[in-house]
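Checklist before submission:
- one chain only
- standard amino acids only
- sequence pasted in full

Submission:
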Amino acid sequence: MKRVLWLFIPAACLIVPISTVAQTSTEELAKKLSNPVAALISVPFQFNYDQNIGPQDDGSRFTLNVQPVIPFSISKDWNLISRTITPVVSQQDIFPYAGSQFGIGDIVQSLFFSPKKPTSGGLIWGAGPVILLPTASDDLLGAKKWGVGPTVVVLKQAGPWTYGALANHIWSVGGDSERQDLSNTFLQPFLSFTNKAAWTFTVNSESTYNWKSKEWGIPINGVVSKVTRIGNQMISFAGGIRYWTKSPASGAKKWGFRFVVTLLFPKG
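Returned file contents:
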């Protein structure tokens, strides 16, 4: 756990000085943060803890996901949203005699082409490719496979409410021939409520289905977040719990925890 925190601290220090004074209200920023394809630069540092991992429930895992979201205006009507997930993992005893591992996991890069304005019915959407990069620094921290597939997000924001879903599917297209091929679906339905004080209450699931092993992993997450300002830096703090309603034999079980610090860079 200490090794993960040491990676978080210098990364945050590097980013904070480049912030600009935000003119957007904290409530509006909180709503944008609930929208995966909002035109808002954000850098979440998402810390997760899971336990009861493996066939004997002996394992535990700390994961720091560094998840920069960067929008690009590519025309008068369209944005391109880059979402990158770089996991830094510390785990132990994920199966008998596995020992402990620490390092970088596989990077997932998503690109969403998204209209700048909602549809006439108020829907916000984006679609594009998702790419899995075999960047793991240890064999037990990644799949050792290249992967590609489609990703899509659809949502609606009505008053204080945001609801929708993000999904992707990744097939392996190369890599270590001795490792199992990939055909994995990710589903993330979400519902959030943001009040005028910029508190957001979110319930979501980050479910996965492995079509090769025919196994589900279904966690339910409850998270509370708050957008605020520290000096000139807009920032969101979030914390919550997770319960695994269904897990593969090698996956986490029962309760997990999440803490997130997100640096926000709205247009001044």
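Reviewer check: Helices lie at 2-15, 26-33.
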